[in-house]
Amino acid sequence: MENILTDHRSYIAGDRVTGGEAFAVENPADESPVAEIPATPLPEIDRAIREARRAFDSGVWSDTPAGERAAVLRALLSYLETMREPLVATMVAEAGQPRMFAERSQFLSGLAMARGMIDLYLSISHEEPNPVPVGELVRGRVALSLRRHEPVGVVAAITPYNAAFIMALQKLVPALMAGNSVILRPSPLTPISSLVFGAAAEAAGLPPGVLSVVVESGSAGAELLTTHPAVDMVSFTGSTAVGRTIMAQAAPTLKRVALELGGKSAQIYLDDAVGKVAAGAAAVIGGTAGQACVAATRMLVPREHKDEVLELVSRTYAGLVVGAPADPSTTIGPLISATQRQRCEEIVERAVDKGATVVQGGVRPSGFPRGYYFAPTVLDVPDNGNPAAQEEIFGPILSVLGYRDIDDAVRIANDSPYGLSGQVYGGDAAAATAVARRLRTGAVNVNTALFSAYAPSGGYKQSGLGRERGPDGIRAFQEVKHLVIGELR
């Protein structure tokens, strides 16, 4: 194993904390222990909350001019940049991600996105005139009506296992730029890469209490964060089931809740774009083994081309290299756990019971006595009611469905409790865009894709509430105050 991050202490209000019961982080590629991590004691998580409250209420960070906050956060990102090798090695070891994905899609893209979020925050107005009709201003003797965007307060950021580093940046940078205090709690499955944020905060000179990083093997700490009255907001990325639980836990104190949850996205190929299905199929599972909430795991193609498509995507999946994440030739690593692999096996079995056919894969690949590998799988699915077409799987399984016409394709795509992302491919970009506009989903890629600080992500329906990235992702961490100013008479 390459040299991974060795400082496994929690970071609370400027202090390095140990003393909690240790838990093992497992390498999903070979089931070996990556490290024993001391869990943050629950009283220390409570202290993190109280210190975050104290720091916010004191104004030590929220009252700092935005340009100065930006300088501190840029220094934090510069520190992370110096940790490239151990950080990437840690992501490979704890998450089982191929090195190329960990380095490019998480580390490099994450830092670029974070720097863009700082620039975006500085480019938009956080206090602006409110458009009030002149007649109202005269009658009310109001000289000025202002809309001011202020920080929410104390934010609990709870991140998933599949992209722990970049998801942390996606929450921390806009929340901190807005002047909030933040407590980061990563997934127990991949906590090590997130502990680096404590060292980065210290190196950058972030005031104590403004950022804390806590880890645990269970969920008691997360529950404290989502119920504590001193926490003003919970930002969570993960499953829809856990998102529902967080909403219920946050309800008694009426916390603001931002949720990016599950997905069952569709990729629609118009008649003149069927030749592009191989690339689209590979993108669904490449790098993440399908463990991505935005993965377009339903492929919708014209019925008359379905057999051709099944052959093309099956050939593509057969050519993907399943292997050890550290091997440069690997394109598909393991799933995160035995539980997740078992879910893939069960969904394939239930899909077949309901009429689907396994065209490629569907089993554990040979040659891997250890590790949670599952073969890239193509299912010929008869209709959208099949379990493989309705349920989020989080594994390397693609369902191929046929549609009669464009109206039928839109109907199938929208026939889902989720609405996180989608894709439309067509030689006529205008026609493809017309289809995209009809999809009930938070983002649609038409013939291309974009991951940017300036472009929002988030879902409709049971895919979540609110947005991350873009101006809306900044506003998510702000309250709106109306200021009415007039002369005393």
UniProtKB/TrEMBL annotation:
Active site, renumbered: E260
Keywords assigned: Oxidoreductase
Ranges where the Aldehyde dehydrogenase domain occurs: 21-482
A Pfam family matched in the record: Aldedh
GO terms assigned for molecular function: oxidoreductase activity, acting on the aldehyde or oxo group of donors, NAD or NADP as acceptor
Similarity section: Belongs to the aldehyde dehydrogenase family.
Name assigned to this protein: Aldehyde dehydrogenase family protein
Source species of the chain: Nocardia flavorosea
